[in-house]
Amino acid sequence: MRKIRKMTSVAVAVAAITTLSLATAGAAHAEVSKPFRLNHAIRTGNCTMFEGARWTLTVEVVGGKKVGVAKFDGTVTSSHNNDAWLMWAFLKDANGAVLGAVTNDLIQDPTDRAKFVMNLPDRRRPYRYFHSGKFDASKFNLIKKMELGKYC
Question: pTM score > 0.70 for this model?
Fold first, then answer.
């Protein structure tokens, strides 16, 4: 597990889950969006997600209702052909309690709506991925960390 504190902090190695803490942002934007950035590469199996991967959480009003929107931007590669990076994004409060998970807008796996799958067909290439999902907007102010479950 790798724990990541603030963007400028030192990472502490532990096992197969990565915790992303809220990146430092200006106070004016604290209520509008929350960026969570990976400040080092992470590996699982044959796969690597590069430093700089980012989840950004926002609350938007859609049809008069508040909706939690999560957007991912990151680069992943594998040392083997036809591999896949699987990821789950868990939202946590300041004490590390799980508040919920981001659900995938694409619903790549109907039995696990929180699973994000990134196919990696060619081991010689890194792949840039953009994913989006939803979360419970009522928990937005409580969210202080993200924890990524990952598998390759």
Answer: yes
Residue by residue, DSSP assigns 86-139 as EEEEEEE-TT--EEEEPEETT-S-TT-TT-EEEEE--TT--EEEEEEEEE-GGG
The fraction of the chain above a pLDDT of 90, given in percent, is 72
Measured CA to CA, the distance from residue 63 to residue 65 in angstroms comes to 5
Judge residue 115's burial from the number of C-beta atoms within 10 Å of its C-beta, 0-12 exposed, 13-18 middle, 19 or more buried. Answer: buried
The SS3 call for residue 152 is coil
How many whole angstroms from its chain centre is CA 102? Answer: 8
Instruction: Select the more confidently predicted residue: 49 or 23.
Output: 49
Eight-class DSSP state of 39: -
Under a CB-based contact definition with an 8 Å cutoff, are residues 15 and 1 in contact?
yes
